[in-house]
Amino acid sequence: MRRSQALAARAEKLFPGGVNSPVRAFRAVGGEPPFVERAEGAYLWDADGNRYIDYFGSWGPMILGHAFPPVVEAIREAAARSASFGASTAAEGDLAERIVACYPAIEKLRFVSSGTEATMSAIRVARGATGRKIIVKFEGCYHGHADGLLVKAGSGVATFGIPGSAGVPEEIAQLTLALPFNDLAAVEAAFEAHPGEIACVIVEPVVGNAGCIPPAPGYLQGLRRVTQKNGALLIVDEVMTGFRVALGGACALYGIDPDLVTLGKVVGGGLPVGVFGGKRVFMDQLAPLGPVYQAGTLSGNPLAMAAGLATVGYLQKHEDEVYARLERLSAAVAEGVAGAAAQAGIAMATNRVGAMWTWFFSEGPVTNYKEAAKSDTQRFGGFHRAMLEAGVWLPPSQFEAAFMSTAHTEEDVERTIAAARGAFQAQ
Ligand SMILES: *Cc1c(COP(=O)(O)O)cnc(C)c1O
To answer: Residue 142 catalytic?
Structure first.
């Protein structure tokens, strides 16, 4: 760890907490985050030459593994034609056509450069289209770091126990209602309490940012029904689940037809891409057609489009094989580690949907944020440190989902389960 330590000491002086995104700092699990030098397939190498099996995949994007050759080649070719034009290109249409084919709810879309921008813009469209101010979100769901969406948010906000964020005016936070996930009655009650005032409901269809929490049967359909009945938009935030739980995301997996969908992570193949899109009638509210303003200097960036196109193109072409493999390996590792915990007498609730899962150190069940928060985070921290020591890099928080890639092998899974067995014996 000598080089990593020296790099960390420099970073502490340059970046708040030594990082450019809070959860990278490992504060929740203890220990020092290794500095990454390179990655290939399922493996990361740190600045001291140690190798790790990667289960956070850049927090979601790397579904085909790191430095996947078609993606590398696409970026290389695009870069040789210049990194940015600030004018329209064919590649934007090419990627958009593929997205529309996978997500029928998306009739029109806009590319942006992050998931945060995507959800922020989708909310603006919903408010512009309805003329209403209030938005409904769910406790433990994370939709990026825009002002109105940090209320009772997941990811780092949950990890560090921050109820909201300083710097977000109360007047703005008050326009966000945060309700418990998987509780349809709470949503119905909110619409009754605020008739004609709620612009939209935004949801992570499978929560990933409080750890993995699947929707209860019928819950998402219920949200569709209630929003429709009350003239509010349903925004399904698929920044994490899109192209991950299925090619068509949670919309396809659960058969839901939202008004707006947001994408990010996988859709950019590791480069900064976000998408918001949906029904034509709402998307046509955007400038230059309509009064809702939204823009971006690097939106639809050619390198990002190339990486996205190579990634989504591969997933589309090899859909059956890719998702069957992800399912098989994810089930094997999730159940294998859960079995090792049971053998060691350690309480563990395992939630998984396709290639995303969480091992909660809790009796379970975990169906909402309150239940996730009952997990033994100290124990998770010990588990994380022991796994890292054994060469397995898990997301550094109890409230984050782990991810599988197509580059992982049965052998990686076996080694992971063996590492977990060792970690549990030591606990
Ligand atoms: C990661 C994430 C975001 C934010 O995306 P960024 O690219 O980090 O801004 C939004 N919504 C969900 C569901 C996410 O997982």
So the answer is: yes
Topology of domain 3-67+318-426 in CATH is Aspartate Aminotransferase, domain 1 (3.90.1150)
The 3-class SS string of the chain reads CHHHHHHHHHHHHHCHHHCCCHHHHCCCCCCCCCCEEEEEECEEEECCCCEEEECCHHHCCCCCCECCHHHHHHHHHHHHCCCCCCCCCHHHHHHHHHHHHHCCCCCEEEEECCHHHHHHHHHHHHHHHHCCCEEEEECCCCCCCCHHHCCCCCCHHHHCCCCCCCCCCHHHHCCEEEECCCCHHHHHHHHHHCCCCEEEEEECCCECECECECCCCCHHHHHHHHHHHCCCEEEEEECCCECCCECCHHHHHHCCCCCEEEECHHHHCCCCCEEEEECHHHHCCECCCCCECCCCCCCCCHHHHHHHHHHHHHHHHCHHHHHHHHHHHHHHHHHHHHHHHHHCCCCCEEEEECCEEEEECCCCCCCCHHHHCCCCHHHHHHHHHHHHHCCEECCCCCCCCEECCCCCCHHHHHHHHHHHHHHHHHC
Q: How confident is the model at residue 157 (pLDDT cuts 50, 70, 90)?
A: confident
Q: Where are the domains of the chain?
A: 3-67+318-426, 69-317
- The second-level CATH assignment, the architecture, of 69-317 is 3-Layer(aba) Sandwich (3.40)
pLDDT reading at 385 higher than 80? yes
Query: Which of 143, 273, 275, 403 is the best mutation target for the ligand 1 pocket, counting ligand atoms within 8 Å of the beta carbon and taking the most?
Result: 143
Does the pLDDT value for residue 172 go beyond 80?
yes
Return the ligand 1 atom nearest residue 241 CA.
13
Asked if residue 312 has pLDDT above 90, the reply is yes
Domains 3-67+318-426 and 69-317 share a fold: no
Question: What's the confidence (pLDDT) of residue 186?
Answer: 98
CA of 380 to the centre of ligand 1 (A): 23
Nearest CA to ligand 1 atom 6: 115
- What is the model's pLDDT at position 224? 98
pLDDT, position 163: 63
| From 24, 58, 111, 142, mutation site for ligand 1 pocket: most ligand atoms within 8 A of C-beta | 142
